[in-house]
Amino acid sequence: MNKILIALFFYVPLLISPQEVLFSATNPSLKMVIYEIESQTDLKFAYGNEIDIVRKLDGKYDFKKDDIKKVIKELSNKTPYTFTIVRNNLTITPDSSPIVRPKKKINPEQPFQMQVEGNVTDENGMPLPSVTVQERGTNNGVLTDFDGNYNIEVSSAESVLVFSYIGMITTERTVEENTTIDVQMEEDSQALDEVILVGYGTQRRSDITGAIGMVDSEEFEDEPVTQIGEALQGKISGLQVTANSGAPGSGLMVRVRGVGTLNNADPLYVVDGNPNVDPIDLVPDQVKSIQVLKSASAAAIYGAQGANGVILITTKQGKAGKSTLNINYSSGLQEIQRYVPMANATQYAILYNEGLAAAGEDPLYSDPESLGEGTFWQKEITQVAPLTNIMVSASGGSETSRYFFSAGYQDQDGVIKGSSFNRSSLRINSSHDITPVLRVGQNLSANISNRENPIGLASALTANPEIPAKFPDGSWGYSPTSLNSQNPAASIYYNHNDTKRSVVNGNVYTDITILKDFEFRSQYNFNIGFVENIDFNPAYEISPQSFNINASLQENFNKFKETSWANTLNYTKTAGKHNFDALAGVTIEESDTKFIRAYGAGLPENATISEELRYLDLSTQSASIAGNAGSYGILSYLGRLNYNFDNSYFATINFRADGSSKFGTNNKWGYFPSFSLGWKISQENFLENVGWMDNLMLRGGWGQLGNQSSLPNYAFANLVTPNINYAFGTDQEVYRGQIAAGMANPDLKWETSKEVNIGFDFRGFDGKVTATVDWYNRETSDMLLRVPIAAYTGIQDFPYVNGGNVTNKGFEVLVGFEDATSGGLQYGISANMARNENEVTALSNSGSAIFQDIGFSGQGSVTQVGSPIASFWGWETDGIFQTAAEVDAHAFQTSGTAPGDFRYKDLNDDGVIDADDQAIIGNPWPEIVYGANAFLNYKNFGFSVNLQGVYGNEIYNETKFRLEGASFYGYTQNAFDNRWTGPETPNATVPRMNTGDRNNNFRSSDFYLEDGSYLRIKNIQLSYKIPERVFSDLATVSVYGSVQNAYTFTKYPFLDPELGAASVDKLDGTLLIGVDNITYPVPRIFTLGVKVGL
Amino acid sequence: MKNRLYFIISLFGFLTVGCSDDILEKEPLAAISESNAYLTELDAQRALTAAYQPLTGNDFSNQGEWGGRGYIHWIFGNVASDDTEKGGESAADQLFAQQIQVFSIATDNDATTSGWETEYIGIHRANMVLDNIGDIPMDEALKARYMAEVKFLRAWYYSNLVRTFGGVPLVLNSELEAHDLSRSSKSDVYDQIIKDLLEASEILPDENEQAPEDHGRATKGAALAYLGKAYLYMEDFVNAEKYFGDVINSGVYSLDPNYYQMFTREGENSSEHIFQVQHVNDQGSFPVVNWLGVTMGSRAREGWGFNLPTQDFVDAFEDGDPRLWHTVYKNGDVMPDGEIANVGNSFTGYLNKKYYVPDFERVGGTLSAGRDDIYMRLGKVLLWYAEAANEIGKTEAALDALNAVRARARNGNANVLSDITVTDKGELRKIIWHEQRVEFGQEFERFFELVRQKRAGEVLRAYAETYDTSKGSGFVDGVNNVLPIPQSEINLSDGKIEQNPGY
Fold it and tell me: In degrees, to the nearest 5, what angle opens at C-alpha A996 toward C-alphas A994 and A1002?
């Protein structure tokens, strides 16, 4: 219906000054002419879809710094088009049709009844020529003349006139009895899709001198994602996104350009300018676009919170014009991607007997064969789980008021039984122009989510396969003889751990244009929520060994309130070829949290089945309470200056000063400057004849950023831990003690990152090819570190110090290709990859390493100078001893070492295998993180594929400790197939079964390491837009289907090579990277959906 | 006009934000700063209470949030010796304990690491009291007593460290900058222990002078008993005899006629107890639970089946010694609560009865009763006295003490445990050693006693051979007399702290 398709390459602020064009070409394409003129002048082109810009123009064109008026005159003469300058627009119309369409009656029986005339102006009252004025639902339309006047005949008083113009919000008016309708059109910032957010403001995409990655909602809108992080996976170079768990409603680990800290390495999320929003509270369907500020020069405006990168998220906004209603419904099924092959009951018994025998104990199973296959526990506790998402959104508004409304409900069961997530969400965004210079608005979001927290899959791997899930009489299965008698199905049945999260966040703002070039914005942001966790442990009896006679209930109640207020003043000025854009601002941010826990036991017995009895009032014993609170505040001053000369040479300077209450008086303030430079080299004369190059921007910058987010609120103060109790007296009265368990550091200051970034943006071959390449070197110094100090000090909580340096260097490449055939086939492919090298360059901890235990296997993670953060650490295996002679010939391991045990390398050649023979054995960080996206559109069909992968990392499969040898827990099929049972198994890769394990085969070693590389087909999607004639004008309808996590190519033998932080709550989570202790796997999801637009 | 209004509004916004500098000063919420923590008498009492608290760390399951993971007496004292098998699910269950009983001990062994950490936490808390309560205006006599109590505690923590690891860094104040230490010699550590105990003994009251609400605090008798023990471990038998003698002759303590009962909750205020760590399970807000009841309890009864008395230990008892069935139990025994015993998966067939939690002691259905740990009692003092007296030729005194213990044990039955009359020093020494093994069997001393008596290797390897087991077989003389210093400590000291030889 909308006859004018808009293509807009550059938007340039109003500038009236003599313009010259220097350009020489033979038979150029119209597109090239447009490009040259746009590059050299401040004019922007406007043309309709009847103009074929790829078409070659006949003849030779030679302009030598000619005035633009002369240029367009010549162009108009020599080409079949008319070029017209109005304001700073250059419109192109075919020579043949100054007033385009014939007046054709839509209904021949009904003659035109009314004549309407009027004048169309822009926001400043300037007349707008070439505005299309059309009677809605007809082909009846005219263009306004040079003075903005129009005259049109319409069929009735009910007719609606649609005014549309490039770069302006389309406006509609009902004729009624008016014969004169004057319209003032408003600039449509949404149409200027090349303008992007840079923090407290916007900038033209092509003018950006820092490294910024972008994802638009179109790139993820039909994927079944519940967390915004998933939408980013594989789509932005330099961004590593990993699910911490596949459980419904869990968060993701997002890392921008590696990690520069042992502390919280999560990026800062800023949602519509609100810096306090937890990404878990965002509904992907409400998001319009996401921008990732990767380089320090780009993120520096966020100062002390920007060191881990900044993710700017814009939610959808209303548009003036016709109101629209969109309904999106999708439904799907999820399944576990794969199971770990486990030993069956017979094999389990054989292995356990072998292990006992090797330890000198009697076998437990006299007849393993009689046990048969047994139970495959992974199947018992997993399910094909449904997923539903419904979202209704409406948007619209008048010239002065716009709104966007969205309400939705998501419901997802987990592939592991007993886990689920649902979320009701509401968002209202609106803005109102009170006067031409005063706008107020608000973005408001409310979410309520419920989550059933799962029991992990690990229990299904370690469960005994000889036990049935249930006995024939319906009671829970158990083993009267085996010590491994856990029943995971029963555990899931009795697990009642639910989290309710209710969050309201958003902001209110006002924009005031004070003087002509000054714009003031005041924005108040808030994020308020409650998180209730209810953990009910019922009374039950699974077996004589496994029962609970005392039902207990624990309620945890978290409350948070975070507010911030930002006041910024923006100044834009153009003087000749000098363009300025300056920003100054003050922000304050405050956070308050409160926590209350209550526990009680002795609940009524039938609370096991009656949910309404699960309240603490009914507990009869063991009441226990706890509570605490915390707060912090940040005060910041910020400033930015953007300058460019002649749209060729660019410079940006950012400055931010942050003061934080988290730091002691000695170092309250931190200062974060940055600068970046750009050179639009394609503007230079010497490249003017390179026809395939549309744009080439070289850019580089330097910036300094801070990270304070992982620091506790009061690390500067030495706080006393209360309730360290002991009993005295013949009656044993409990006394309360207290001690400062930690050590304060009043000298704490910001952790600082300095980064150099160099890169370029390229567009060429008539816009078909795009490329962005960045190289960076980021050095983090004064890293906030909890330095382990000698235990003999008696300090339990290690003190924070500014004590280490880390370097991240790497490069990022993004290339894209898009084209269309004349037959209507549009296709494109883009690929991105990033390489990052992480190295610790200094640790103040007297230079010694920081070790971290990995599960039961010991100190398997090390952070030391010269290696990446959290490298894997341990002994190197050198095969398995086959004979006693080999044991004797090798360096002494232990007095119990025997054939079938691992041989460890004697790295220091001292004849003894001991702690000095440990070394770095692996790297949890991928060498390369990559992604690729392809699409194909033909007529009403759309097809797309997203790929995502990592290469070159190791995974520490800690579950082997329990599943491949030493213990009575489950055994993998691999342990059965590949264990050493004697010299006849020289190719064994798993040591002999031995429940005693005197050789300590399960110490941290390369035995645990696996290749972590994988390539995942993240999403495949097919959509079909039902032709309009089917539903006439009533609605647009499209249907789509997708498969998420369709297939994974990997050598990794366990559940899933995608491993996030093992423990996100604990500080040591940052040091447990790439460790598999069986997290909840990410499911494969099949969805079908329908979208209806009214 | 309007423009000016907007200008004013904008300026106002700027200024309002700019003035809120006080948001950078946040007082800690829900927490007391250390600077305010030593002001009143109650503060002194709280600081002292915190110094006692690491005593309660006695098990891997007792992951005390604020007291370290614990010094696991039963693994070092019992499991490392010939008296006790580790038990549990299989050899791999609590592998660190398995490593200790086969003497193939990794330097990052959990038990040694957590034992080291916990005792030093206790030492730090004691130092904090000594360094900080001096200026508190309070009753000076009480202050002196508090100081004496923490000196006792510091000595107690050091005596665990020195017998486990040998010489350790001596940390005697809470000034953290000063901690760039290396290991002191074993004798320097003992000298400090003796100094602290002597100073404590001069101030601490006798137990019978203690108010009932102070029961469980360090006493003069406890300080003297540990002085004797320190000298015994230094093989200074003259001083050992002197201080053990002072305890015996003080008249404060007497042997409990009911041997078994003194290990139960009912016997917690026994006249025999000299130093015991207080546990209580009131199921209220601040329980000081003892997990050993669960750890050593039968698999058949919600226990975990650790700490299995060996056949060798059972066989060590003289025929008819009533202490045997007070110390261990087996399937079919009738227990104090009337239950018929089922030892679950104990492959030796025995469990430790001194930690049996009868049904009437269970709290909320669990075996984690509030049972006290008895670390020093008159029975031990008498037999150590006997040993020291015998070594310095006071044979009669030695026999008196030894026979007092046997007399109590025989409990009026004249047919068993007849008085010892042997006077040959060597032979009597063996008899006293044997008596020690059975009198305080499973009471966390055996391994250290064997090392002290310089026969650990001989005894443990003989055990391994007799029972054809790996337990004890790996003991290397000159290496395993002490356990490895935690690897993390060596790493963190940048080599200043040296590992024990052989690890």
Answer: 70
Closest partner residue to B89 (CB to CB) among A483, A725, A858 is A483
Q: A263: helix, coil or strand?
A: coil
As a whole number of angstroms, the distance between CA A80 and CA A844 comes to: 73
Q: Which residues pair with A575 in a beta bridge?
A: A578
Q: Do B13 and A567 touch (CB under 8 A)?
A: yes
> What are the CA-CA distances from residue B373 to residues A829, B280, B329 (Å)?
72, 11, 19
Give the three-class secondary structure for A999: coil
- Rounded CA gap, A646 and A684, in Å? 11
B48: which chain A residues are within 8 Å (Cβ-Cβ)? 737
Contact A123, A185 (CB under 8 A): yes
Which tens digits make up the pLDDT trace of A729-780?
988 888 888 888 777 777 877 788 899 999 999 988 877 899 999 999 999 8
Q: How far is CA B197 from CA A476, B243, B244, in A?
A: 58, 11, 13
Average pLDDT, chain B: 90
CA dist list (Å): A591 to A263, A526, A563, A819, A904: 19, 10, 7, 49, 52
Per this entry, what is the length of chain A? Answer: 1094
CB contact under 8 A, A966 and B92: yes
The span from the CA of A397 to the CA of A319, in Å, is 6
Chain A, 376 to 395: residues with Cβ < 8 Å from chain B are none
pLDDT of residue B18: 52
3-state secondary structure A153-188: EECCCCCEEEEECCCECCEEEECCCCCECCEECCEC
**Residue A919 Cα to chain centre, angstroms:** 34
The pLDDT of residue A686: 80
Question: CA of A683, closest CA in chain B: separation in Å?
Answer: 39
Hey, which bits of A576-620 come out as E strands? 578-601
Helix intervals (H) in A854-908: 884-889
- Residue position matching structure tokens 């039950």: A540
Coil, helix or strand for A252?
strand
Q: Is B93 helix (H, G, I), strand (E, B) or coil?
A: coil
What number of residues does chain B have? Answer: 503
In this predicted structure, the answer to whether residue A186 has a pLDDT above a threshold of 90 is: no
State phi, psi for A213 to the nearest 5 degrees.
Answer: -105, 150
Are the Cβ atoms of A793 and B176 closer than 8 angstroms? yes
For residue A285, the distance in angstroms to the closest alpha carbon of chain B comes to: 34
Is A515 near chain B, with CB under 8 Å? yes
Q: Which residue(s) pair with B388 in the sheet?
A: none
Lowest mean pLDDT, pick from A514-518, A832-836, B357-361: A514-518
In 3D, which of A254, A252, A225, A602 has the Cα closest to residue A410? A225
| Cβ–Cβ below 8 Å for A788 and B91 | no
Residues 6+ apart with CB under 8 A from A885: none
- Evaluate whether A792 touches A768 at the Cβ level (below 8 Å): no
CA distance B96 to chain A (A): 10
Question: What are the distances in angstroms from CA A27 to CA A24, A31, A59, A66, A691?
Answer: 10, 11, 5, 19, 11
Three-class DSSP labels, A643-676: EEECCCEEEEEEEEEEEECCCCHHHCEEEEEEEE
Look at residue A710 in the predicted model and tell me its pLDDT: 64
Sorted by sequence, the CB contacts under 8 Å of residue B140 that are 6+ apart come out as none
Q: What are the beta bridge partners of residue A438? A: A435, A512
DSSP letter assigned to residue B371: P
First to last CA, chain B: 86
- Mean pLDDT of the A448-464 span: 87
**B17 contacts A565? CB cut-off 8 A:** yes
Chain pair A-B, CB pairs under 8 angstroms: 329
Backbone angles phi, psi at B39, to 5 degrees: -115, -35
Residue A661 at interface with chain B, using a CB cutoff of 8 Å: yes
